[in-house]
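Hi team,

Filling in the usual template for the complex we talked about on Friday. All components are listed, including any nucleic acid strands or ligand strings, so the model treats them as one assembly.

SUBMITTER: L.P.
PURPOSE: interface mapping
COMPONENTS: two
RESIDUES: 1373
SEQUENCES:
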Amino acid sequence: MGKARLAAFRRKGSGAPAGAQSGRARPNPNPFEVKVNRQKFPVLGRKARHAVGQPGVSRARAVQKRTQTLLKEYKERDKSNIFTDKRFGEYSSSMSPEEKMMKRFALEQQRQHEKKSIYNLNEDEELTHYGQSLADIEKHNDIVDSDSDAEERGTLSAELTAAHFGGGGGLLHKKTLQQQGEDEEKPRSRKELIEELIAKSKQEKRERQAQREGALELTEKLDQDWKEIQTLLAHKTPKSENRDQKEKPKPDAYDMMVRELGFEMKAPPSNRMKTEEELAKEEQERLQKLEAARLRRMRGEDMGSDSRKPKHLSADDLNDNFVLDKDDRRLLSYTDGKMSVEEEQSREASDGESEEDHHEDPSDENVEESSDPDGHSDLDSDTETEEDCGRPDTEPRLAPQKRLANNGHKAREAARNELPYTFAAPESYEELKSLLSGKTMEEQLLVVERIKTCNHPSLAAGNKAKLEKLFGFLLEYVGDLATSDTPDLGVIDKLVVQLYNLCQMFPDSASNSIKFVLRDAMHEMEGSVEARGRVAFPGLDVLIYLKIAGMLFPTSDFWHPVTTPALVCMSQLLTKCPILSLHDVVKGLFVCCMFLDYVSLSRRFIPELVNFLLGILYIATPNKHGQGYTLVHPFRASGKNSELLLVSDEEDTATWQRTGLSLRWASGLKAQTKTEANHTRLSCLAVCVALVKHCALLYSSLPAFHDIMRPLRALLTEHLANRTHPPELQELCQSTLSMLTDMGKQSQRCRPLVCEKSKPVPLRLFTPRLVKVLEFGRKQGSSKEEQERKRLIHKHKREFKGAVREIRRDNQFLARMQLSETLERDAERKRKVKQLFNSLATQEGEWKALKRKKFKK
Amino acid sequence: MERGPGPDGARRALGCLLEAVLASRGEANAVFDILAVLQSEDSAEVLEAVRACGRLFAALLERGELFVGRLPSEDSVLAGSQGATRKYKVWMRHRYHSCCNSLRELLAHSSLEVKELALSTLMRFVQLEGGHPLEKPKWDGCYLFPHQLFKAVVEGLLSLEDDCSLLLSQFREYLEHDDIRYHTMQAATDIVVRVANRYPEVPLTFWNNAFTLLSAVSLPRQEGRTSSFYVKHAKLSQTWKVVHLKEHRKAFQLMWLGFLKHELPLGLYKKVLVIMHDSILPHLAQPSLMIDFLTRAYDMGGAISLLALNGLFILIHQHNLEYPDFYRKLYGLLDPSIFHVKYRARFFHLADLFLSSSHLPAYLVAAFAKRLSRLALTAPPEALLMVLPFICNLLRRHPACRVLVHHPLGHELDSDPYDPEEGNPAESRALESSLWELQALQQHYHPEVSQAASVINQALSVSEVSIAPLLELTAFEIFERNLKKKCQESVPLQFIPAQGLLGLQDDLCAQHFTLS
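RESULT (copied from the run log):
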């Protein structure tokens, strides 16, 4: 392979050997000079490049080339002088010999024209034209009327140029020769000659002009004729032309219709309107889908990435569980000149922008209307902004509120109408508080609603952040409301809906806000636990936060960034906070209710809750035996709070009615009378027993149900034995107890545990790796860079080998040359020696002959 | 006596008196004036007086102007016909004595500054008196130490009424010195015995003070250290008891045994037991003597038993203590409160040690595992995260116990054969049971607990899980960890729209609570 490749890398600059090409082109008749490279297998359509080699020819070529280059170098090796041909372009192979000649000539001329010294101004240089000195030509003394108009084409007539530039020596000579032939006897002067020339050229010019005018005239005439004929040909055209000049033709109504219909944008096929059943069905399907997702999360199936296993384990698998499952590179994009990295954000922003244009008018209108003194315009603006909002569920919810507000309090309406219609989103909590404080519940809701609509993220780019902040502020406001002395639970109740809506819009920031308040509460508790070893029940705000967290986020998830910490927080409340008062009992029971609500769908087991209920039951038990149960941490078997829920007054017991506990109890409401306190105690007990019942239902399927519930059962039995409770409560206890025992019996079939059979580890099968061959003749199965690298390595190797071979051959060639030189030198010396000997012998012979002659003489 | 107003005036006046007394013996009666100021109401004046006394008697002690030897009564000497110098010396010694008494009373002064100054002055006297003994040496090179004075100081520290912890923390500096430490131990032993004998109901403050003092005494681990003496001696003799660490240990042991012999309040029991393994047991001459105390504490039950475990373990482990029914008692200690007490980490660390032996019978380990898992039904998540690996470790160590989680040949049972009331692990029938509790905990609300409990579903891995990092886990750490965990996708949301705080009908909160 590559036999024709010569060491071009060493000796550049030599012209391509012409001989080689001719040698190649020539068909070689001698079969003995041809080497045939046998192909292993024939491939159709492939051109065999080196099927036939001509070793003799290529060797000759190589030798020839070496003689031209290497040998030359070798011969000049000791010479310090080198002959450099400085002629222009001598070594440039890109110029043709003709070009070289031209350039050289130009250069020569230029050199001649160059001044000897640039300061020598007086040095006159001889200007030439076509080798003729201009000074000579000037002697003609011609006055040429060089009217530029005359030269239309930019080319001068031969005579003229000859006359002007004096050059055209040849011409002149020719002419003179001709004229010499005509009228030798009267040689005209140079002036005459020129004049004649001028006259001639002028005439020529005039003729040309006339010709052109004639042609123009002819065309005009033809046009006229054509117009006349045209009127004959079509009658209408001139009329329409005239009309066009006067007025636009009135389009026919029918035509218009047809056109319109023809060009009208075809409406894309849209979905047909859905019937109510279909809508309901769709909604149901949506809910089902959400429910399925919830169940999946509850079971923790998609917990972490570890569950995401690759299906097929290849033999080449490194066993490091590496799967490239998601390309998490951020996409870079630009929105209004700013670089934004997150794709989502940019989408949002651009959405906002595009919608901004659409909604500019309504918002402007809003502003105008707000300045409008007419109060009733709020309906319009609200509906408009609701359209912007694009949330179907806000409308029905808002409508009744508004109706209520409009119908109900006429007196207050005037005041409410004074509320501004647009609100800037509050930048700080104090701002929000100042907006909301001192207003009625409806007004507060309206304000929040308006803030939300005015700052909908589709209206402006920064609104998203504003509303995200609004969520945090609202949460803080709710906390403040709950911690005040008389908590405004009604407002909280309604604000929760707003919080829910905001949360649906911005889940991430909402979860962060909730996490933040929870962390605050936990930090407070932690500090207290570390300092004093125990902590009092926190205020109503923490409980409300926990409740809100449960309403905004799914509580049944196996793991959830918000609800799992919330669960831990509740567990802490139940285990670390000792029960010191009736308020604590109510708070604790509220936490229990929330806890059970959290796990109502997932049916998860809460040990702390069972302990707490046990403790509550215990502090309500009159005569304790303490058999079959043990109290745990926040409760003590004896102490001043061990009989907190005990009701000894029989009258109070008799008058008790089962009612819901008021949340106000949790916020420091004081019992007015002893009877009221006693009633609350009984209510607490009733709630506690009801919760026990709920637990029994919830946990009936747990394998250790009996063991979990045993202490509760023992305490309930004690309760029943006392018979001091009101009949309703007694009944509740009875039913709960029977349920506990029944459930216990049902689930008492204890089956010994058995581990899941672990699957036998399959032998690793070393399956061959199959790779699709996409293109033959290429190195396969790697990336582009890898391929390129391999190609380069291969090329380098080939080149290296070739270079080594060439150097070897060069050396051989040189050695051969040296040998031949030596041989030549030796032969020469021998010849010379021989010659010397010859001459000497001849001399000797001559001398001897002379001597002999002498002797003879 | 003429005095200017304020402490400055008092200082100047006292300075004059002091110089007068030191200058000539004729002015000696001025000492009474100085001593009188010690009883003053103003604490600033008292401070000045204490300083003056300190300087005065320090100078006198150094000059040797106090009577050396057995002190005769003042009246007899003054009445007798001895020389004037002797009379002066005896008289001055008596003044010195009364000064020491007043200073000792000042240790119970209301102002901390006065107390501290009194203590340092007394200790200075101790030092000087040790250097210039006030009693005649019985033989040459005899070890002399102002026992009387020092004992009075220690007695003042171990007050019956006041909490002297601040003063004791100052006294702790002196305990660096070998001789002070040795004599403190002796004095403390005596005082504890005397107080306990004198009063039928010893006040709590005394015990607290005594414990603070006793726990402040720490012996060096090894003898080779150069001993530092508070009282400077010309040369140390090997015949002195103070020099030897062995004697120190004996005194230390006597002191603690004497202290622990008495009925201590429960809080103090805990405190003693907490430092027992670290700072008491290693320094006793015969650690096995502590066995009585430890067994008594171990039998007490509750947290005290848990704490006594540590000391017992050291005795069993290092001193060949044979403790019958140790495991049975350990088993008895397991009750629901262990997950809630403060010493949970220590207890489980020790329990892990006790149960790490592979020579334990399977029934015992099974009983422990079953008991712990039964208790786990009432444990908070932070304890569960520790105890579940603990149980799994038990099963790993003792393959015979694996029937608890894997019993393919077992028959279906009517009820759990395990008897939680039985105190003897051998008869609790734990091996016939299964850990259904862990199966129940797989439904725990906390995901990590649920995962930890699900380990038993598969065959247990061979290597144990180290529970050391889990021992100190608190709920707050779990909370933080959960908060910091990143959610990969966006946060899932509740799809049932909220309708108010108590909006949903099937909500338990809505059923049982009202807003109004």
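MY TAKE: Chain A touches chain B through 104 residues (CB under 8 Å). Residues 578-746 of chain A form one domain.

Thanks, L.
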